[in-house]
Fold this sequence. Notes:
Blueprint: H1 2-20, H2 29-54, H3 57-61, H4 73-85, H5 88-94, H6 96-127, H7 132-146, H8 151-154, H9 157-179, H10 183-199, H11 214-228
Helix pairs in contact: 1-2, 2-6, 4-10, 4-11, 6-7, 6-10, 7-9, 9-10
Amino acid sequence: xxxxxxxxxIQFGGRLVGGWGDEEDILTTRGVVFTMLIPLxxxxxxxxAVIAVLGWWHPVLRDDxxxxxxxxxxxxxxxxxxxxxxxxxxxxxxxxxxxxxxLIATQFVGWGExxxxxxxxxxxxxxxxxxxxRVALWSSLIFGLVHLTNVFSHGASAIAQxxxxxxxxxxxxxxxxxxxxxxxxxVLHGLFDFxxxxxxxxxxxxxxxxxxxxxxxxxxxxxxxxxxxxRDIEPSHRTDGDAVVASA
Length: 248
């Protein structure tokens, strides 16, 4: 029910606020404010209000179930993808005000979705007694499934997006665990979306920035590595109560 309310705020709230401001896209600073910043800010406020009411600050913001240290490769690869994927030229053409507003809006996405799905979602699944491999699986699948609501704005392409997002959700879940908090995955999530938008949506009469294809290669590489080393994800000194996390 919490996820449904969250989606209503983003999907319908975004259209309502965008219509109120007479804005339909993010090609201008004003467009970003009305179609992204305001509705995403409301969704972010809702997410952390729920966390406060439930008293879940610690389990949401901290992760007490470590993984093997080699998994720092996951956030490392995501960071490289972000650096490569940002279309610096397109952003320069937009001006500093647009860049700052878009950066804030995408951080709202990162902190909101990570708070909801890697924070509240993971905590709920753990509280229901699921082992970590199932926590990883279901939190990632739910994250992907909610993106199917984009079918109203993106059509059938939302299905492929949901599959890719599920995989990304698993990478972000591992980032949360290896960093022992919900901070790094939130920041990287926002920057990742910032990079994607800079190389696709904000372009006018230009082809997509080649750097946006970096995530495809990175996803394939990370998925292959995690599949091969899936038995080495949990630390070797884990207790009998710890779960073995399988790759998504």
